[in-house]
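Example 455.
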Amino acid sequence: MINNKFPKDFLWGTATSSYQIEGAMDADGKGKSVWDTYSHLSGKIQNNDNGDVACDHYNLWPKDIKLLKKLGVKAYRLSISWPRIFPSGHEKAPNLPGLDFYSQLIDNLLENNIKPFITLNHWDIPQGLEDIGGWPSRDMVDAFVKYSYYVSDNLGDRVKNWITHNEPYCISYLGYVHGQFPPGLKDNWPKSLATAHHLLLSHGMSINEIRNNSKESEVGITLNLAPSTPASNSTYDIEHCKFFDVQLNQLYLDPLYKKSYPEYLFDYLTKKRLIKKSDINFIKPGDLETIGKKTDFLGVNFYSRAIIRDQDIAEDKNLPIEVTPGEKTDFGWEIHPRSLYNLLIRIKKDYPIEKIYITENGCAYNDPPDKNNIINDSKRIEYHSSHIKELKNAIIDGVPCKGYFAWSLMDNFEWCEGFGKRFGLIWVDFESLERVPKQSFFWYKSLIENNGKET
Ligand code: FCB
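Predicted structure in complex with beta-D-fucopyranose:
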C-alpha cells in the first residue's frame, strides 16, 4: 500500500517504442530498420513473429491517444523510428511524411495535455547504416547527429524532453557479445566496446544540436541499470559479480558523469584475452570530454536485480549457492523491488546526477481476458505498486526522481520474445488489433489521480 503522495509536479507516464508498436513497416517512404531485417531471419524470434504490423499504432494512434487520455498520464515516452526520417540513413534531407507522422502525434498529445518524451534511438536504426558498419563504426556518430538535428529542428518547438539512446548496453552487449540482438554477433568484445563508445559519443555530440533547436528543453539518456549480488561468497562469484557490475553499470555511468572509463573492465578483458589493448583505440582525444558534457537527466530502466554465478568454473569447484531468486514474472525475471531503492541510492551516492526519471519499469504476465472481457492482472498491479513504494522511499531519502513511466502502455512486440510476453496495461488482440484496458490500467489511473497514493 502506497500512502504518501508524491511531489506535486511528479510526472506519471507510460512508455512504448516505435518498432514494438507501430507496424506499417514500409509506409510513406519508411526504409528498413535492422529489426525489420533481423525479425525476418528464420529462428531469431519466438514463433518467427515480426513487427510488420505489431499494434498497427501507425494507423491506430488516435485510438491510443484516447486511451492515454483516459489513463490520465501526464507524460508519454515514445520513440522515433529513424528509418521513417532517413530511410537508408544516408539521405541528405529527411523524409517529410515520416516527420509529419510524429508531428501530428505530438500535436495531439499536447492538445490532451500529455507531455511527449521522445527517444531518438530505441534500437531500430536504418539497415543502410548497419550495412556500412553500424555502431562499431565511428561514422554512426555523424549519422546520429544529423538525425537528431533534423528531428529536433522539426519537433523541438513542441517537444521539450529528449532521450538520445535507449539502453546502450543492450545494443552493445546483446548485439555483439551475447548475439541475441541484431546484428547477432557473438563474443566480439572489441566491436561491443566500440559500439558503447560511439553511442555515448553521439549522445554527447547531439546535446548541443538538440538544445539549440529546442529551446528550454532537457536532454538525457536512458540506461538499463541493475544492482548485482554474488550467488555465493566464493572469490569466483565475487570477481564475476564485479565484472558484471562494471560492464552493465559503470561502463556507461563513469564516462557520462566522471569523464572516464572503468580501466578495470579493459584490464579484465585483456587478461581474459577477449580484447587486445590496441582494440580500444576507438577512444580519441577529446571524446571523454564530449561524452561527459552536462546531461540534464538520467533515464533509468529497472526490471530486476542480477544474482551472479561464475559460469566458467565447474560447479563442484565453486562454493554452494547462497542467494537464490524469489518469485519471478512470466519472463523469468526475479521480482525484487528493494533493488530499485538500492540502485537509486547507490547512483545518487556515486554520481553527481541532478535529475532522474524511471523511464521504464514493468513486468510480463500473460493473463488473458475472461469471458466478460475483463483482464484481472493482479500480479502486475502488485509489481508496479511494490516498485513505486520503493521509489517513494528513495525520493524520501533524497533521490531526485521526477517521474515514473510504466512499461508499457500496451502489449507489443517484445523483441526476441515476439508477441509471447505481454507487458501492457492494455491487452492487445494481435489478430483483431482490439485494445482492452486491463485491471492494472484502472489501478494506475486511480494512482495517478491521487498522485501516487493508493486508495
Ligand atoms: C527493455 C526495453 C523495452 C522493453 C522492455 C521489456 O529492455 O527497453 O523496449 O522491451 O525491456
